[in-house]
């Protein structure tokens, strides 16, 4: 079973079809089709159901997808680990919450770049829940999320403890305003909703945003209130017009750290990255 065939199979699944996969892999459609057909012949199983121009993953395909992701992850990590011993080259895929990226990631990534100059860094932001799924699915090598994280496949290293504070615009009352929060899957969202109920804020409405500055910008003009790490608020250009209030202990302190697969091969760059984060605190 060739790795190129597994990469092609994974691309077809994730991109939703032959044409999109061929574009991602920078090859012609016939190459993609031939690789999938050879893979099916080798395995003696149908991987997709063909429906007109569409393709639906067959039960055998769903089983293969999980193993393919693990095999490709192991191949990539093995290659990277071997290269890191000598030339410090390879690829490191890092996920992060928006707030963590704003506070800690730039300095930490700078330290990784200095220690591993040939390492290619790829970074994306998402909610904690989405990042955990991406690590489990072998789409990220590590991710920085709000904890605690308890999952059989994931190892969680606590690196910092963020203090959440209630944030509103000067001259407004959170009791009469909607909550402004990140989308579903954000750990801060869960805390904010719990605090909303516990504090007696009567407004059940909530506005969702995908970016840090979008939330603080709307809070600053009096559209609502939010919970946000204190340091993020203090560094915001909107800080002068915001009112920051301390929360009770059970809502305020959020352990934050790095998650990675327990089964993943060790990478020295991850140690460099986590050490650099601790150094920024």
UniProtKB/TrEMBL annotation:
Domain of life: Bacteria
The keyword DNA-binding is assigned to this record: yes
Keywords noted in UniProt: DNA-binding, Transcription, Transcription regulation
GO molecular function, one term: transcription cis-regulatory region binding
Domain HTH lysR-type: 1-58
Residues spanning the signal sequence: none
SUPFAM superfamilies to which the protein is assigned, alphabetical: Periplasmic binding protein-like II, Winged helix' DNA-binding domain
Pfam families on file: HTH_1, LysR_substrate
Family: Belongs to the LysR transcriptional regulatory family.
Protein's UniProt name: Transcriptional regulator
Lineage: Bacteria, Pseudomonadati, Pseudomonadota, Betaproteobacteria, Rhodocyclales
């Amino acid at each position: 079973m060739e790795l190129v065939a597994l990469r092609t199979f994974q691309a077809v699944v994730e991109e939703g079809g032959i044409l999109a996969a061929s574009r991602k892999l920078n090859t012609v459609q016939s190459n993609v089709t031939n690789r999938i057909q050879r893979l099916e012949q080798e395995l003696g199983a149908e991987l997709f159901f063909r429906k007109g121009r569409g393709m639906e993953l067959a039960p055998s395909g769903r089983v293969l997808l999980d193993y393919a992701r693990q095999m490709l992850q192991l191949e990539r990590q093995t290659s990277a680990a071997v290269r890191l011993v000598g030339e410090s080259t390879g690829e490191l895929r890092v996920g992060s919450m928006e707030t963590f990226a704003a506070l800690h990631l730039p300095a930490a990534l700078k330290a990784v770049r200095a220690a591993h100059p040939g390492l290619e860094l790829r970074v994306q932001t998402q909610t904690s829940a989405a990042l955990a799924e991406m690590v489990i699915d072998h789409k990220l090598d590590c991710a920085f999320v709000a904890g605690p994280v308890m999952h059989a496949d994931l190892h969680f290293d606590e690196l910092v403890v963020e203090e959440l504070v209630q944030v509103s615009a000067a001259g407004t009352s959170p009791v009469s305003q909607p909550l402004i929060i990140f989308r579903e899957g954000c750990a801060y969202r869960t805390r904010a909703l719990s605090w909303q109920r516990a504090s007696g804020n009567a407004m059940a409405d909530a506005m969702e945003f995908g970016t840090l500055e979008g939330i603080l910008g709307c809070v600053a003009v009096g559209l609502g209130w939010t919970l946000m790490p204190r340091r993020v608020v203090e560094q915001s250009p909107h800080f002068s017009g915001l009112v920051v209030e301390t929360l009770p202990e059970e809502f305020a302190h959020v352990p934050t750290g790095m998650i990675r697969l327990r089964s993943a091969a060790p990478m020295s760059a991850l140690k460099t990255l986590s050490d650099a984060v601790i150094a920024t605190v």
